[in-house]
Amino acid sequence: MRIDVLTIFPEMCEGVFGASILGKAQEKGIVSLNAVNFRDYSPNKHSTVDDYPYGGGGGMVLKPEPIFAAVEAVVAQGQAGASTDKRPRVILMCPQGETFTQAKAEELSQEEHLIFICGHYEGYDERIREYLVTDELSVGDYVLTGGELPAMVVVDSVVRLLPGVLGNESSAVTDSFSTGLLEYPHYTRPAEFRGWKVPDVLLSGHHVNIEKWRNEQALKRTLDRRPDLLTNIKLSDQDRKLLQQLRTVDVDGNA
Predict the structure, then answer these.
(1) Which H helix or E strand runs over 153?
(2) What is the per-residue pLDDT for 176?
């Protein structure tokens, strides 16, 4: 996979790209991560990328010319080294966009080339939205100074799903949200710490009981912390029965 992040602050991305899982993924040749300064594509001798909004108002608006030129340049570069002529997804990081989810990360991980556009100032020229991007994404209902941090969140979430990136391929499958539920609790050595013991079932070696316990804990944790998630996932008859029991216990005060 190739990922290009268009920004006027490429230094914000470079440290993230070179560290931890992202750095290792690049070393393995699984992904190519590039921070592209779209100021370099400004047609203005002063490398201007923003201007006052038509109609007045506060703040500055990002101009279309440098962003269109930067996207077209990285698309051409990507197609030169690609096995197909499939167009990349061009993603605008924006608080008005679709809320980013694990399902969206899984969808994007199937692509060969992703391009992220990181804005600053008051906003984007609307023609960027209408004629250039394929997706608009938001990481939450709040406003940040720019799109770089949200883009890094999405990039990390997507890259870790690529085959060969994580040391344990089952890790991404069992993560919170991958199944629709929050992840079950984890424990490691020592078996007892300051009087707090690891649940006996995890020490039993009985894998069927362990999986049953983990599923029950995932359901309970989701019910306690994010009950809204339960309306959007398919549950087995057994899970629905267990969920009803958990709700009964909650109503009766740990009956």
Answers:
(1) helix 148-159
(2) 57
Tokens of 232: 């959007």
CA angle 223, 225, 199 (to 5 degrees): 75
**For residues 25 and 162, is the Cβ–Cβ distance under 8 A?**
yes
pLDDT of residue 255: 46
The tokens for 64 are 């279309």
Q: Beta strand 123-124 with 61-62: parallel, antiparallel or unpaired?
A: parallel
Give 33's strand partners: 3
| Domain residue ranges of the chain, discontinuous segments joined by + | 2-159, 176-251
Q: For 202-238, how does the pLDDT look when each residue is reduced to its tens digit (9 = 90+)?
A: 999 999 999 999 999 999 999 999 999 999 888 999 9
Measured in whole angstroms, the distance separating CA 155 from the mean position of its chain's CA atoms is 6
Selected from 3.40.1190.10, 1.10.1270.20, 3.40.1400.10, 3.40.50.150, the CATH number assigned to the domain covering 176-251 reads 1.10.1270.20
Q: List % helix, strand, coil for the chain (3-state, nearest 5).
A: 40, 15, 40
Average pLDDT for residues 175-188, to the nearest whole number? Answer: 82
By annotation, the residues acting in catalysis are: 95, 122, 160, 175
